[in-house]
Design goal:
mainly alpha, 13 helices, about 55% helix, about 10% strand, globular, binds adenosine-5'-triphosphate, binds magnesium ion
């Protein structure tokens, strides 16, 4: 990890990240984000991981589904290896300081910054006038999620890089506007062979939990038959796999499946191709299914077990929220002092 620092001040390293309870967890969320969260938990740096329910409601969520998805996401975190004693786990709306700091950032960030965001353009689509104001302001709340803890490093998938850059812009503008060295300039941490897992149906589109087609993604809760069926039906081209990385260049679907294999098996793409180069997809796809089932089924079994005791999950989140608030509250108070608000 490189240093995150404003020119005058070095900040103590602290890691924050979040996932939206906007649906079930996908293989993309696991490989791009949650697995990295687990790696970082044992790095000796304080780790704070959130279920960002206030981000999820920027598009309509059925209240019962939101509650269930939030608990399932918490179960996914824990089943994947996050330990509530080591990492701080909670849901965003339990710590009001996120939204309070977001309001200040809404007044620091500029409209044009928000309108340039790829996620806004993708999610609002052609009907921007009818999208929620929250969807436009999403990156400002995300900056607050990170900066309310003075977090220096944020593990995310490739698609969130632009939002971290905007978080940096907000921190820089706040520091400049008020002549302080108060917020750190946060570093994104985008690592591994699967920082952008693509849809199984369309190699040009990211795998998303909110994609209307369930066949486009592998859910963490899918059973072995479902995983095998989705991989069997995944779009590919008719050629055999290449032996060199360069051979994947114009083949997004092939590259995606190889990347997934490499990430699941803790190998580099080069190592995978050295083994599977020359094989047809009819041979490679069953290898990938077996690997995915072997890696995911212990996690989904544990998620199902945890989901049988939702009150235990809620107790873990409440405890995490108390710990998070203890860090966030003084940072919000200092921000209010800087801005000139009387306490
Ligand atoms: P939604 O479709 O509702 O936006 P999502 O699947 O994109 O859901 P998020 O909650 O927005 O999930 O993102 C959580 C984390 O997972 C982020 O760090 C994001 O970068 C990462 N992530 C999401 N999709 C992928 C993907 N396809 N490949 C790698 N990382 C991903
Ligand atoms: Mg997303």
């Amino acid at each position: 990890m490189t240093d995150a620092a404003t020119p005058g001040k070095t900040f103590q390293p602290r890691i924050f990240s979040g996932v939206q309870p906007s649906g079930g967890l996908t293989l993309g969320n696991y490989l791009g984000a949650i697995r990295r969260f687990v790696d970082m938990q044992d790095s000796g740096v304080e780790t704070i991981y959130c279920m960002v329910d206030q981000h999820a409601i920027t598009v309509w969520q059925n209240p019962e589904d939101l509650r269930r998805n939030t608990r399932e996401l918490a179960a996914g975190y824990i089943a994947a290896g996050l330990d509530p004693e080591k990492s701080i786990l909670f849901n965003q709306s339990q710590v009001a300081e996120h939204a309070q700091l977001a309001w200040i950032f809404n007044c620091v960030a500029r409209m044009g910054w928000m309108q340039r965001m790829t996620q806004w353009k993708d999610k609002a689509g052609k009907n921007q006038q009818n999208a929620s104001l929250g969807l436009l302001a999403y990156p400002s709340l995300m900056a607050a999620d990170i900066l309310i803890y003075h977090a220096t490093h944020v593990p995310v998938g490739e698609d969130q890089k632009q939002h971290i850059e905007l978080t940096r812009d907000i921190a820089i503008k706040f520091n400049n506007d008020f002549g302080v060295d108060f917020f750190p300039i946060t570093e994104p941490v985008i690592e591994g062979a699967a920082t952008r897992v693509m849809s199984l149906r369309d190699g040009s589109k990211k795998m998303s939990k909110s994609d209307p087609s369930d066949m486009a993604r592998i859910n963490m809760t899918d059973d072995a038959d479902t995983i095998a069926q989705k991989i069997r039906k995944a779009r590919t081209d008719p050629d055999a796999l290449p032996s060199e990385v360069a051979g994947l260049e114009e083949r997004p679907e092939a590259r995606n499946l190889v990347n997934i294999y490499a990430a699941l098996n803790d190998q580099t793409v080069e190592e995978v191709l050295a083994d599977v180069g020359g094989k047809q997809f009819s041979e490679f796809k069953p290898m990938l299914s077996d690997l995915a089932v072997a890696k995911l089924s212990p996690i989904s079994t544990e998620m199902a077990r945890l989901m049988e005791a939702p009150e235990e999950i809620d107790a873990i989140l409440r405890k995490g929220a108390d710990r998070a608030r203890a860090i966030a509250a003084p940072i919000l108070q200092q921000t209010y002092d800087i801005v000139g608000m009387i306490r």
